[in-house]
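[audit] Reproducing an earlier prediction to check determinism. Same input, same settings, fresh worker. If the C-alpha cells differ from the archived copy the diff job will pick it up downstream; this log only records the rerun itself.
[audit] input (148 residues):
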Amino acid sequence: MAFNILVVDDSETMRAVIKKTVLMSGVQIGEFCEACNGKVALQILEDMWIDVVLTDINMPEMGGVDFLREVKKNDVLRNIPVIFISTESSQLRMEEVMSLGAAAYVKKPFMPEKIREVLLDVLNKAYATRMAVEGTGATPAVECEADF
C-alpha cells in the first residue's frame, strides 16, 4: 500500500531534508505534498487524501499547533495522524501537542533512523485502525526495504 504524505514546514530546505529522509525510509509513497504553513496544509487536506502529516510547530500564518487543532475539529480529517518534527524541545510543548492528539513528536536535529522508526510505527497503527473500522480484519504491515 502506498501512502500519501504531507510535509509542512516554512523552511523549503527542511521540507527537502524530511522528504529525502522519508524516501530513504522504505515507506511506499503514493503522493508527496508540501506546504509552507498550516493554512496551506489545510487547503491540501481539503483537496486530496493524505495518510500522514509531518509538521513543524513554528510557522507564519498558521503554526503546527493551530493546524492540529483545526484537523482534530474536522470530522473528515481528525483521524489523519500528525507527526511533529520541531526544534522545540520543551517538555510542556511536547505534552501539549500529544494531548491535542499528535501521533508522535520528533526533535530536530534528527537521525534518519528516528524518522523511519516513528513513521513506520504511526503508519502501522493508523493502517491497523483503518482496517478494523472497515471490517476487513486484515492488518498488513508497512513494507520497508531501506537499510540504515
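[audit] rerun output stored. Observation attached for the diff report: Residues 112-134 form the longest helix (23 residues).
[audit] end
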